[in-house]
Design a protein that fits this description.
Tetracycline Repressor, domain 2, single chain, Arc Repressor Mutant, subunit A, 10 helices, about 75% helix, mainly alpha, 2 domains
């Protein structure tokens, strides 16, 4: 029994190492320029056969990465929604999360916001159709009903609000804005909120 648990833990550790190495390579070199040999070397794995024990193809690695990131984001958004009642507070919590991730986990955010995921994962849902981001549209819809957010279609509210947030985060991640995301956070929040807030 203990040996089985240890084998499962080791398997998960190796998978995590592969995913972390691939994430770094996909965001630095691009998906198409990162080979399985590069991933093997970055993950300190003996041979590519060891990768194939966990993932049959490079595309499966990318798919698992995308799924893991979106699942984690989805859980975090549920947590923010539970802790905050008003739509404005929920949106503020999500903005705080995204800016923190940009500073603390830039490779994750580059993979989400800058990598053209549909080029190498054509079957994957676009980011704005993921469960996490559909919840943001529901938050905006609830804010409209509560009178916190001006009357518009929730999708348009999402576009106004996250157009600003997304653009600032992309500019930080590409180095166009040369400070950490945290520096721009309060200004970004005010600009984004003012595009949808009921005056």
């Amino acid at each position: 029994m203990d040996q089985e648990i240890e084998e499962i833990q080791t398997k998960h550790e190796v998978q995590d190492e592969i995913l972390l190495a691939a994430l770094k390579l996909f965001t630095e070199k691009g998906y198409f320029n990162a080979s399985l040999i590069d991933i093997k070397d970055a993950a300190n794995i003996k041979n590519t056969g060891a990768i194939h024990q966990h993932f049959k193809t490079k595309q499966m690695i990318a798919s698992q990465l995308y799924e893991n990131i979106l699942d984690s984001l989805d859980i975090s958004i549920d947590d923010i929604r539970r802790k905050n009642e008003k739509s404005s507070e929920q949106l503020r919590g999500i903005v705080d999360l995204l800016f923190k991730l940009t500073d603390d986990a830039p490779d994750v955010m580059r993979f989400l916001l800058i990598s053209n995921v549909n080029e190498f994962l054509p079957e994957a849902k676009p980011l704005h159709e993921s469960a996490a981001f559909m919840k943001i549209i529901k938050i905006i819809e609830a804010g409209i009903k509560a009178g916190e957010i001006r009357n518009m279609t929730p999708q348009l509210g999402y576009t106004y609000f996250f157009g600003i947030i997304d653009n600032i985060l992309r500019l930080v991640l590409t180095g166009f804005l040369d400070r950490k995301a945290d520096f721009y956070q309060s200004q970004a929040w005010l600009a984004a909120w003012n595009t949808i807030a009921k005056k």
